Amino acid sequence: MSKDAQVIVVGAGPAGLTLATELALAGCDVLVIERREEGVQSRAGTVLPRVLELLDYRGLAQKFIARARQIRDNPLIPFHIWAGLQPIHWSNLRSAFGYRLVLQQNVTEELLMERAQGLGARIIRGRTVVGLDQNASQVTVNAETPDGVRESYTADYVVGADGGRSAVRKLAEIPFPGHDGTFTGIIADVPVNMHWEHGRAMVDNEKGWAASFPFSDGGEITRFNFVHADRRFADKSEPVTAAEVRQCLKDIFQLDIEFDELVWASRFTDAMRLADSLRSGRVFLVGESARIHYPASGVGMNFCIQDAFNLGWKLALVVQGRASDRILDSYQSERMPVAVDLLESVRAQCAVQFDFSSEGIAFKRMFSREILPLPEVNRAIGLQLNGLTNPYPAASGNHPLLGRPVPEATLQTRDGLVRIAELLASGRFLLLDMTGDEAFSELASDAVVVTSGVVSGARAEFSGVRAILVRPDGYVHWVSTDASSSIAEAEGAILDWLIA
Predict the structure, then answer these.
(1) Residue 205, C-beta contacts closer than 8 angstroms, at least 6 positions apart
(2) Residues 6 or more apart from 135 whose CB is under 8 A from it?
(3) Measured distance CA(4)–CA(20) in Å, rounded
(4) Distance of CA 285 to the CA centre of its chain
(5) Omega cis (within 30) before 87
(6) Distance CA 17, CA 61 (A)
(7) 46: helix, coil or strand?
(8) Angle at the Cα of 295 (from 290 to 297), degrees rounded to 5?
(9) Which residue, 63, 73, 211, 461, is the most exposed by fewest CB within 10 angstroms?
């Protein structure tokens, strides 16, 4: 019996749409099933440097930046926060993107939706997943329309990208241990003009913590985040009122601002849970379907998108018969440690950020003044916020590039100058002969791009490197510094992933 798709993605948020674009780029038949009939409210609003790098690999970064500039004049912010403290300078990452991009989640989804559909992904809205059944060869998803009509869809694999209350995770019976919220915070979009001194500001004192920044074209909407020392014990289901937000502004920012309504508001908590596994047979979890946590430093969506980039190319290779399904195990082994590190970071940040005692505030002042400015500390925290603290497992060897994102560089080739990021646009493996000798050209295939060239300019990261294999998601898998590097060695590194 024919299947409805090779892969079904449940959820059309940032993670689900990113996964759909990666699968469709590789030529896979992908179907996205989404419960919502309309777009999401603008919860997340930050795209961090590592995700901008990933988008750049697919030729999308400048499109995202251009769209953000239509919303606000300068959406590029060269610093960030950790535990409510600042600044974390993105320049310390030595990325091609020394900034974060301010862009509402709904716009991020619009851009990813356009990309996915342009590549041939099919998206069905208004379907609630109510059943899931898998066997050795396929997965069946049962869904209901708004009118209660049952529909069934089958695929080789199913990916749950359906958020913290994931139906896919529950139906796959993947345990989700952790704890419920111990406090609540507030996100509120307020219709006030941004031409005042606290247009972008962060404050903490004995009354709580608050941040504000412009969130619309022209500055007529301000987004506020609050954790009020007294109101943090409000129930998450309690509606956020304009009066409550005005009181938070008065207590923490010490400002009286008049407004009678909110554009949008919600409460969030520090509930924290992590799935026991990111996979159950032919079912996978990405993003918030696998974890929930307090939105510390606003990085959550970025980790979700990185999950999707990690899984997408691997799943595409397997369903198309180019790789053994054993490579899918690497999704768990690579992304689960990242999730564990993320939650540990969130715990640490909450412990520091929401200690409103005089001792806690004194520590934060000292840390901001004496410790945070140290370049090595600033860089370590920046790597942590981007999920780059530890390298992925890679081929044998101890070269510092192994398991880490390939540094951006420009190569001088026979055809002219080309950036490494541009060479990853097709979503295939990239084998770089960095001597310009074209020694590996015979390894080019429909799964591997082979390019020969010499790095333009002095780049210490590539000192002594003669050849390098870069995965479709931009991570370095193999490095050769040996003048006698053979085609067999390079081919062996490729065969770590592909079927001969």
Answers:
(1) 252, 356, 361
(2) none
(3) 15
(4) 14
(5) yes
(6) 16
(7) strand
(8) 125
(9) 73
* Spatial CB neighbours of 173, under 8 Å, sequence gap ≥ 6: 280
Give me the pLDDT at residue 214, please: 78
User: Which runs of consecutive H residues, i.e. helices, occur in 149-299?
Assistant: 167-171, 242-248
Element (H, E) at 490: helix 487-495
- Nearest CA to 156 among 281, 35, 247? 281
Backbone phi and psi for residue 322, each to the nearest 5 degrees, phi listed first: -90, -15
Cβ distance 428 to 472 under 8 Å?
yes
- Helix and strand element counts for the chain (H, E): 12, 28
Q: In degrees, to the nearest 5, what angle opens at C-alpha 278 toward C-alphas 277 and 279? A: 90
Give φ, ψ of 390 to 5 degrees.
-120, 145
Q: How many residues does the chain have?
A: 500
Q: How far is CA 295 from CA 106, 151, 301, in A?
A: 17, 35, 9
Q: How many CB atoms lie under 10 A from the CB of residue 457?
A: 7
CA distance 309 to 47: 15
Could you tell me whether strands 208-214 and 272-274 are parallel, antiparallel, or unpaired per DSSP bridges?
A: unpaired
Task: Identify each DSSP E strand in 250-383 by its residue range.
Answer: 264-269, 272-274, 279-280, 283-285, 291-292
Which residues of the chain are under the pLDDT cut of 70?
1, 39-44, 194-199, 217-219, 458, 500
**What pLDDT is stored for residue 67 in this prediction?**
96
Gap between the Cα atoms of 24 and 264, Å rounded = 34
Query: Is residue 134 within 8 Å of residue 120, measured between CB atoms?
Result: no
- Residue 40 is predicted with a pLDDT of 66
Q: Tokens representing 354?
A: 């929401």
Among 394, 163, 155, 176, smallest CA distance to 281 is for 155
- CB hemisphere CA count around 21 (13 angstroms): 31
Predicted pLDDT at 217: 61
Q: What is the pLDDT of residues 363-388, one digit of tens each?
A: 999 999 999 999 999 999 999 999 99
At 493 the pLDDT is 95
DSSP 8-state secondary structure symbol assigned to residue 441: G
Closest CA to 237 of 180, 314, 280: 180
- Phi, psi (5° rounding) for residue 270? -100, 25
Neighbours of 202 (CB within 10 A): 16
CA distance 392 to 342: 15
Q: To 10 degrees, what angle do helices 61-71 and 105-118 make?
A: 140
Of 72, 43, 60, 67, the residue nearest 97 (C-alpha): 60
Q: What pLDDT, on the 0 to 100 scale, is given for residue 459?
A: 80
The model's pLDDT over 89-126, given as tens digits with 9 standing for 90+, comes to 999 999 999 999 999 899 999 999 999 999 999 999 99
pTM of the entire predicted model: 0.94
DSSP assignment of 130-161, as one string? EEEEE-SS-EEEEEE-TT--EEEEEEEEEEE-
d(CA 14, CA 48): 14
What kind and span of H or E run contains 448?
strand 448-452
Instruction: Give the model's pLDDT for residue 407.
Output: 95
